[in-house]
Each structure stands twice: as structure tokens, then as C-alpha cells.
Specification:
The complex is a heterodimer of chains A (326) and B (469). With 326 residues, chain A is mainly α. Helix content of chain A is 65%, strand content 0%. A 10-stranded mixed sheet of chain B has the order 3-4-5-2-1-6-9-8-10-7, with helices on both faces. In chain B, helix 3 (73-81) links the parallel strand 1 and strand 2 (88-95). The N and C termini of chain B lie far apart (70 Å). Classes of the chains: A mainly alpha (326), B alpha/beta (469).
């Protein structure tokens, strides 16, 4: 074939392909906007999407229930996710959907998705979680322990034992949940776990101890400002700061500690609770302020001077989950 | 050997190269189609709202490195603080800016100087000061001595507290569900997916996207921006999504790169030895994890997570693209031992050769093709009918790739008005003579600078934007 013919054929093929794709764009545009929007939507809020509207029509039918239960256990990820999402929608009205989600959690598929749905279904989940607390899988026990936070009575009855769990993630989760439930037992557990070998557990214990025990826990917590782990030091700092200016009495003695990390931690706490700013502003507080500034690094002094110059005070930073989940 | 024989040989060489490149692109586009279709199907079954607001979703530290970004940065930070995700923190690292970046941030975000403690895992240039926002306590600003983008990101990594670290650029404005979309995929397989990137749209003024919500359109922007929009669409939908599916995702872009923090720490963060950090880190992840035979994936999503600023003048565009070319060359050269090496699986056997073909030797080919045509025209050896047919064929094939990418973009989420689509179609046939020569020049310049050992960033001025309030 002559070169010119080959090129003409190439042009024809490419032109045809371009035309086809352009038609594809136009045909795609014929699709109703709400369908396109639904595909890229961020949530399953009520929608006029017919595909979604068909879900409630199927509810309650035994074949559907069986299908969804099987779907949640499916080896196919898309089927599994679809079933979990649908079960989550049905769970507000049907206990069998909650049971199917619990079963899905126990089998370990898509834990983030299942727990997100179960968390939304409170208070229907409740006692159904109890058997999972003794599940052989660390991941399942961890998820159940965190889910139970919405049921304080159940947490207080069942979680203290999990603070002895073999998995540090479960121990930390149990503490966190007990903290949220305000259990008296949590204070004892958290004080005990301040010496746990796992940094994640020690960090959790710091937060739990002050959340439940208030300033009573501060003397036990203050030494953790010099912990070997940065995560624990930060958790201790956040926990002490959450107690407010009252904590200063427990932290001030640490400014003379031998350990520079501990001194720096104490100085940071006093900065964060506003004690440093108060002392610098007061006529008679300069000596104390100098003790704090002397314990910290030079940036502490510069930042304090800058704040004083601008006449601004600090707010308290919230705690951010700082350890990897299992 | 006669001039005609030499020219004929060169034409055959160029045509063979072109056929090989187009065959690769076509294959990747078809894989991209399949992958973006799968992604759209997943969206229909996924409850993103529940995932984004769930306390069981993994926490994310967003780290933004900024150098002289007074114009763009407040918009980027605002959009980050508006992300719809359960648990995240934003760490902005001011890398020794010489403009009023820090002052503008202080003013717009109510920053207070504080002292903080660093984990000090990775050595960086020294920290000058820390700032915490009184209006949003999730924000931490680190002001440090200039050390480059990688150094700034490492400083952020030293202070990150979350399980995942998301590195972002200062010229971005993010969609509120950006993190939900990214983490949706990571939570499907958190043990294996170690890194992720996603599609970003290019616009002239991202701050408009923040003002107007997530609606943006290209009809009002210049043709230069429209061509860049097509370029980005092709790069993501026709290439990166396919790379991701074929397991050789070679570039988690700096504009939006999510990494598992433990892996970043293990690899000692981003490297300062390269002009730009993003491609190198992705290559290093592949090298280390494949060497250690660990199961892993680096993925690219078709989801639009935000908008980035496209240079609005040819000069700025050339400056940006020549740097990209230089970075590709630097990284490819440093990791050349992976090319055609079975030990590195798809990365060594497909990814590296593809980069070699489509990026490394492309400027040489382009120069050769233009020279051949010029010499042919001067000596009268070019048959003008042939020339016209070749030009038409290349134009049509390029338009096929552009339209394929546009189709995927439009199916993913309808952000262009019909007028915008029509405008893109009208611009496509002219790409070869308007946009491609600029790219070719930028790539040649980048190659030349790489050969000269230039490692500078050559930062260009940002486009004019509305003032952040």
C-alpha cells in the first residue's frame, strides 16, 4: 500500500475514534444530572435516585435478608460494601440488619465500614456487642470495646476486665471507653496502666486519669511529662492542660527536676494553661515566670514575649488521636 | 548515504517511536476507562458520609509546605479547615518565606505564638517559632529556616500525630470531601495501601472555587488554562489511574499525597537531595518495599479532591514544566537500576520503561522530528501531502486521547457546563500547534538544565487572586 493511503487510513481510523468518543461525551450528558451527582455524592442522605429508593422496597423480605447477610460475608469487596451500606440503612428499623452487621464484624470483613454503621445505629446495638468483647480476634475486641462507649452501664460492667487484655490496642480502647463512661473503676485502672509497657496504653491512661479523676490524678500524671515516649509526654501534657490553671501547683516543682525533658514538659504545661502569661502580666510574678522560662528552651521565652507584646492569651488545644489503630 | 536516505531513516524512526508511544497511551487509556468505571460503581454503593464522620476512620495529619505563598495560602488553609472528616489536624510549615506569608496567616487565622515539642525523628532546618490558631485549634503553624519543600514536609512529619500524613500544596483549594474520598479507599485495604493520590483539577484562580463552593468552569479562563485542564485530565485519567491498576503508580503528586505515617518514618521522610520531592518518594517506596518483598500498593483515584492553580502565562508555564521535566530526569536517573529489572515487578518492567519512552527521550524525539521536517522543507524532500496527512493524523490521535480523558472526567462528576465542553472540543485540534510546542520547549529546557546539574526550584509568581478575608 502506498504511504499516502496508509496515512489516509490512519486519519480515518483516528477521526472515527474521535467521533465515537465525542458522541460518548454527548450521550453521557443525556444522563440526568441527579444520577451523576448521586454517583459522586458524599453521603447516603435521602435522594431521589431510583436505584437508592429501591432499597426500602425490598426490606423485610426473607430473601432480601438472606441475600444481605450473605453479601456482608461475600469475598467480593463491592458486594460486601454494598451489603454493609444497605444493612446500615435498614438497621434503624430492623433488628436482623443489626445482627447481620454484628455478624459481619465478628467475621472481620470491612471493620471500618461495619463499625461506622453500628456506631450510627445506637442504641439498637447495645447488648449485642457483649459477646464480641470475648472474641479471639484482637481487631474485633478492639472495635466492640470502642463501640460500647455509647452504653455507659455496659461499659462499666464489662470493660474493666479488658484493661488486662493481652492486646495493647484493646487495653487502650477499654480505657478510652471507660473514661467516656465516667466509671469510678476507670480511675483505678488508668492509674495502674500509667506504668503499662505499651506507650499507646500509657498515653490512653494519662487522658483517662485526668478525665475521671480531675486534679486528684495530677500528681500521678505529672511525672509522665518525662516519659521515654513522645506520645505519652504529649498525652500527659494534654491531659494536664485540660485540668486548667489548678494544675500549676503539681507541675511547678518539676521545673527544678534533673531531667531536662521533664522540665521542658512542665514549662509547656504552664504555658498552655496560661499560667506563664498570667505571671508575666502580674507585677509580682516575674520571678516565677523566670523559673518557667528558664526550664524551657529559648523559643518558649520568645513566644511568651511575642504574646505579651500582642496582648494575646492561649486557648487549649484539643487532643488528637495519636496512636495507630490495629 | 544520500540526504534522502537519511531523511527517510529519520522519518521511519520517528514514526516507529510515535506508534510505540501511542500504542502505550491507548492501552493505558483503556485500562483507565475500566478502572474509573469500577470506581464510579463503588461510589454508588459506598456510604461516604458515614465513613467521613465516623470516629473509626483513621486520623489524618495534613501537612502543607509554603514558601512565599502569601496570596494563595490563606485560601488553601481555609479549605483544609473546612474538610468534612472526623479527625484530622492541619500543619502549615512556613519554609522561611521572604514575603508576608506568615503575617497574612497570623492575621487571617488568629495565630498565637507558642512553644511546641517535636518528635525530632528527621533532621530539618531549625524551627524559628510555632503558632496555634485561636479560631481553630486543629491548626498548627511552624515557622522554620528555609530548607526546601522536602525539609518543610519533614518538619510537619516530625509534629504529625495521626496515622496517615497527607502532603498538600499551598496553591490548592480542597473539596470538603477530599479526605473522605481518599480514606474510603485506604480503609478497604489499610494493610496494603501505603500511599494514595487523586485527581486535581487545574483552574486559573482556585480561590473562586472556595467562594463559589465546588462549582467551577473553564469557559471564562484563558485557552492556556483550558489546555492545561486537558493535560491534567489526560495525565490522570489516561495514565495514572491505569498505572495504579497495573501496580506501577510512579508519582503521588505533591498537591495531594497521602502516606501511612509509619512508612514515611521508616523511609526518613521526603528527600532533600532532589529538586522536587514527590516523584522521588514514590520511587523510593517502590524500591524499598519491593526489595523487602513486602505487599503494598500505591494508588491513584479518579476522584476530584480539589483545584490547583495553573500558570496563566506561557513564561510561568514553561518554568513549571521545565522543573517537572528536570525532576523526572533526576529521579529516573537515580533509580535507573530498577528499569527492566524483574526484581521490581511492574515498576521495573512497565513503569520505568514507560517513563523512559514517554518522558525521558520525548524531548530528543520532538527535536529530531522538528529538525527532520525543517531540513526536509528546506531541501524540498518533504512531500507536502504526506506532511499534511501526518499532521492531521497526529492531531486526530491527540484529540482521541483528550476526548477519552474528557469523557472520563465528565462521567466522574459533572463540573463543566456544556459551553465549557464545547470550548474544549474546539481547542483540541489546535493543541498540536498551540500547546505542544510550549511543552516541547519546556521539556527541552528542563533536559538541558538537568544536564547542567541545575537543582533550583525557579519559583514563579502566583496568578492574581482575590484577597483572603
Amino acid at each position: 500500500m502506498e504511504g499516502r493511503t496508509i496515512l489516509a487510513v490512519c486519519c480515518a481510523v483516528a477521526g472515527g475514534a474521535w467521533l465515537l468518543l465525542a458522541i460518548g461525551v454527548l450521550v453521557g450528558r443525556l444522563r440526568p444530572s441527579h444520577r451523576v451527582q448521586a454517583d459522586s455524592d458524599a453521603s447516603w442522605t435521602p435522594s431521589d435516585d431510583p436505584a437508592r429508593a429501591s432499597v426500602p422496597r425490598l426490606e423485610g423480605e426473607d430473601p432480601t435478608r438472606s441475600l444481605l447477610e450473605q453479601g456482608a460475608r461475600s469475598a467480593d469487596r463491592q458486594v460486601r460494601i454494598s451489603a454493609i451500606t444497605t444493612l446500615g440503612r435498614l438497621g434503624h428499623r430492623h433488628d436482623w440488619a443489626v445482627d447481620a452487621l454484628i455478624e459481619a464484624l465478628a467475621t472481620g470483613g470491612e471493620p471500618v465500614r461495619v463499625t461506622a454503621q453500628l456506631d450510627r445505629l445506637a442504641p439498637r446495638t447495645g447488648v449485642r456487642l457483649i459477646p464480641l468483647l470475648g472474641h479471639p480476634s484482637d481487631l474485633v475486641r478492639f472495635c466492640a470495646t470502642r463501640l460500647i462507649v455509647r452504653y455507659p452501664a455496659l461499659a462499666q460492667a464489662h470493660l474493666p476486665v479488658l484493661t488486662h487484655d493481652r492486646s495493647p490496642n484493646v487495653r487502650a480502647a477499654a480505657l478510652e471507653t471507660l473514661r467516656a463512661s465516667g466509671s469510678g473503676a476507670a480511675l483505678r485502672c488508668s492509674l495502674r496502666l500509667l506504668d503499662d509497657p505499651s506507650a499507646r496504653v500509657r498515653a490512653g491512661a494519662c487522658r483517662a486519669a485526668t478525665a475521671i479523676g480531675g486534679t486528684r490524678a495530677a500528681p500521678f500524671l505529672a511525672p509522665r511529662l518525662g516519659d521515654a515516649s513522645w506520645w505519652v509526654r504529649e498525652a500527659a501534657r494534654e491531659a494536664l492542660v485540660a485540668l486548667g490553671p489548678d494544675v500549676a501547683a503539681f507541675v511547678l516543682p518539676l521545673l527544678e527536676a534533673d531531667d531536662p525533658t521533664l522540665r521542658q514538659g512542665a514549662a509547656l504545661v504552664l504555658q498552655d494553661v496560661g499560667a506563664l502569661d498570667d505571671l508575666l502580666a502580674a507585677d509580682h510574678g516575674h520571678e516565677q515566670a523566670e523559673r518557667i522560662l528558664g526550664a524551657g528552651n529559648p523559643r518558649l521565652r520568645e513566644a511568651a514575649a511575642d504574646r505579651a507584646r500582642r496582648g494575646v492569651r492561649l486557648g487549649v488545644r484539643p487532643a488528637i488521636s495519636s496512636e495507630p489503630a490495629p | 548515504m544520500s540526504m534522502e536516505a537519511v531523511l527517510r531513516g529519520l522519518v521511519v524512526f520517528c514514526a516507529s517511536y510515535l506508534c510505540l508511544v501511542y500504542a502505550s497511551y491507548l492501552t493505558l487509556m483503556l485500562v483507565g476507562f475500566a478502572e474509573s468505571r469500577r470506581s464510579r460503581r463503588e461510589h454508588r454503593i459506598e456510604d461516604l458520609g458515614a465513613l467521613g464522620s465516623s470516629r473509626f476512620s483513621p486520623s489524618v495529619s495534613v501537612v502543607l509546605a509554603a514558601y512565599n505563598e502569601a496570596v494563595a495560602l490563606p485560601h488553601a488553609v481555609r479549605s483544609l479547615l473546612g474538610l468534612d472528616y472526623a479527625e484530622f489536624e492541619v500543619i502549615v510549615v512556613n519554609d522561611g518565606s521572604t514575603d508576608d506569608t506568615l503575617e497574612k496567616l497570623r492575621r487571617t487565622l488568629d495565630l498565637v505564638p507558642v512553644e511546641e515539642s517535636s518528635r525530632g525523628l528527621i533532621e530539618t532546618e531549625s524551627i524559628v517559632s510555632y503558632y496555634r490558631s485561636r479560631s481553630d485549634p486543629r491548626l498548627l503553624v511552624i515557622d522554620k529556616v528555609n530548607g526546601g519543600k522536602a525539609d518543610a514536609l519533614n518538619a510537619g512529619l516530625n509534629h504529625s500525630r495521626c496515622r496517615y500524613v497527607c502532603g498538600v500544596d499551598a496553591d490548592m483549594v480542597f473539596a470538603s470531601d477530599a479526605l473522605s474520598r481518599a480514606m474510603r479507599v485506604i480503609t478497604q485495604d489499610p494493610k496494603t495501601i501505603v500511599g494514595l493520590t487523586s485527581y486535581v483539577e487545574v483552574v486559573e484562580d482556585p480561590s473562586r472555587a472556595l467562594v463559589d463552593g465546588v462549582e467551577y468552569d473553564i469557559p471564562d479562563s484563558s485557552p492556556l488554562i483550558a489546555y492545561q485542564a486537558l493535560d491534567y485530565q489526560r495525565a490522570f485519567y489516561n495514565n495514572r489511574i491505569a498505572w495504579s491498576r497495573l501496580e506501577f503508580m510512579l508519582c503521588a503528586i505533591g498537591a495531594f499525597q497521602v502516606w501511612r505515617r509509619d512508612l514515611l518514618e521508616e523511609l526518613h521522610g521526603w528527600s532533600r537531595d532532589y529538586t522536587c520531592e514527590d516523584i522521588e518518594l514514590t520511587f523510593r517506596v517502590h524500591e524499598v518495599l519491593r526489595d523487602q518483598k513486602r505487599p503494598y500498593r500505591v494508588v491513584c483515584l479518579p476522584d476530584r479532591v480539589g483545584v490547583t492553580e495553573g500558570p496563566d502565562t506561557v513564561r510561568k508555564l514553561v518554568a513549571q514544566r521545565e522543573r517537572w521535566q528536570r525532576v523526572i530526569l533526576e529521579t529516573w536517573w537515580a533509580y535507573r537500576h530498577m528499569c527492566f529489572n524483574r526484581r521490581y515487578g511492574a515498576v521495573g518492567l512497565l513503569g520505568m520503561p514507560f517513563y523512559l519512552l514517554s518522558e525521558i527521550v520525548a524531548p530528543v524525539f520532538e527535536l529530531l522530528a522538528v529538525t527532520t521536517l525543517f531540513v526536509g522543507a528546506v531541501t524540498g524532500l518533504v512531500d507536502w501531502w504526506h506532511f499534511a496527512f501526518v499532521t492531521l493524523a497526529i492531531t486526530l490521535v491527540n484529540s482521541v486521547f483528550n476526548t477519552g480523558a474528557l469523557l472520563m472526567t465528565d462521567l466522574q462528576g459533572r463540573v463543566y457546563h456544556k459551553r465549557g465542553i464545547a470550548r474544549l472540543f474546539a481547542l483540541m485540534p489546535l493543541e498540536l500547534v498551540v500547546y505542544r510546542p510550549i511543552m516541547a520547549w519546556a521539556r527541552l529546557k528542563g533536559t538541558w538544565r538537568f544536564l547542567r546539574g541545575d537543582r533550583a526550584w525557579h519559583k514563579f509568581e502566583r496568578n492574581a487572586r482575590a484577597e483572603a478575608v
